[in-house]
Amino acid sequence: MSARRLTAGLAACAVLLAGAGCGGSAPSGAAGVAAGRDEGPLKIGALHPVSGANAVDGQQMRRGAQMAVEAINAAGGIRSLGGRKVELATGDTQGKAEVGQSEAQRLISEGAVGLVGTYQSAVSTNVAVVAERNEVPFVMDVTATDAIFANGYRYSFRVQPGSAAISEAAARYLKQVSQEAGKPVAKVAFLHEQTDFGSGAAEAFTEAAERLGIEVGPNISYDALTVSDLTAQVTQVKASGANVLAVAGYYRDSLLAAKAVNAVKPDLDAVWGVSNGAFDQPKFVAEAGDIGERYFSTNYHYDAQKPETAKLRAEYRRRYGDPMRTGAVLSYDAVQVIAQGVERAGSTDLEEVREAIASSRVEPLTVGAGPIAFAPNGDNENALPILMQIQGRQVKQVYPPDKAESKPNYSVTWRQ
C-alpha cells in the first residue's frame, strides 16, 4: 500500500462515526453491488439538504443535478457503454453530518458509480470518509472546507474553489477595490457561522488581510442552525469602529445579518461576503429590504458571460419559476464530471472511473480560469473566486476585470 493510500485510510478510520469499521476486506455485499452497476441505468448519487434550514438550496442543487442527468440522456447517454442511460439516485442529508454519512452508504450500496454533494462542509467531511472507504468517487459541488483535501484521499474531488482560495481572494479584492475607489479599507469586523465552513473562512481571510496590512477584529461567531437575531452581534461591530463587515454564513443567517445592519446602522463602507450563501442571490435582494449597493460577495458563481449557462438558467426558471442559484449550476457541473469520467473510462469499474475523473478536463458552466481539472489532492486547479456586487438591485460580476459584467462601485453613498 502506498504512503498516500495508508494516510488516507488512517484518516478515514479516525473520523468514521458509525457503522462499518476499518478492516482490510471489501464491504459486505460488494460483489453484488459491483454486478448491479452493470445492470439498468447508471446511477449517480446526489446528497443535499432537501429538508431543514438549508432546504431551499438543497432542492435547487438536486434539481440542477437532475437537469444534468436529463441533458446527458438527451445527448445519447453514456455512449462508450452502448448509450446506457443515467439515473439520479437521491438522498436527503437534512443538513446533518451523520445522516449524510448513512445516506451516502445507502446510495453506494444501491450501486451508485459516484456521488455529488453536499452543500455543507461538515456533511461532506463524513461523506468523504464513506466514499474513501468504499472507493467510490465523490465530486463535491459545494463544500468550502479545505481540511478534506489535506487527508490524502484518492476519491474526493471538488469543483468549487476552496475556503482558503475564496478568503484570500476576498481580502485581495477588498484591498484593490477600496484603494481604487480612494477609500482604502482600514479595519474589518468578521461575522461568521461557527462550523468548519465559517470558522475556516474567517481564519483564512484574517491571515490574508493582515498580510496586506488590513486590521481584522472583532471576530464574532454564531450558531447558524439556532440563531434568530444578530442585532447584538452587529451592535458589537458598530462599537468596534470597523469600516467593513465581512460575513461568512448560509442564506438564512446572512439575511438576519443584513436585517441587523439595517436596524443598527453601523458606519460601514461595505458589507463583504466571504463564501457567503446569500449576498449573491436574487432572492436576498428581494428579501433584505433597503440595502443599497454596499453588499459585495467573493464566491464561486455561475458564468454570466457563457451562453450555455444562460440557456440552462432560463430553462430552470421556466420549469420551477425561480432563478437558478450558483449551487445548482455547480451540481450540474459535478454530475457532468462523473458522467464524462464513466464515458472516458468506458467502464463502471470504480478505479477506472476514478482515474478518468482525476485526469478529466470538463468545460464548466461556472466561472473558472479554464476547464475543470483536478490537482493531485482532488481540488479543481482552475476554480476561480469572483467578486459580485448588488447594483441596481441585481447581482453583477464586478471583479476581476476580465470576468466583470460591470465595474465595482465602492464609493456609492450608503443608503439606509
3D structure, described in words:
The protein is α/β, with parallel strands linked by helices and 416 residues long. It is built from 13 helices and 12 strands. The protein has helices spanning 3-15, 30-36, 55-74, 97-109, 121-134, 163-180, 196-211, 231-240, 251-264, 282-287, 307-320, 326-345, 350-358, and strands at residues 42-48, 86-92, 114-117, 138-140, 156-158, 187-193, 215-222, 244-248, 270-274, 295-299, 386-391, 394-399. The strands form 2 sheets. Strands 7-6-8-9-10-11-12 form a 7-stranded mixed beta sheet, sandwiched between helices. Helix 7 (196-211) links the parallel strand 6 (187-193) and strand 7 (215-222). Helix 1 crosses helix 5 (121-134), helix 6 (163-180) crosses helix 7 (196-211) and helix 8 (231-240) packs across helix 9. It is globular and about 65 Å long. The chain starts with a helix and ends in a 17-residue tail after the last strand. Mean pLDDT is 90; it is low at 1-11 and 13-32.
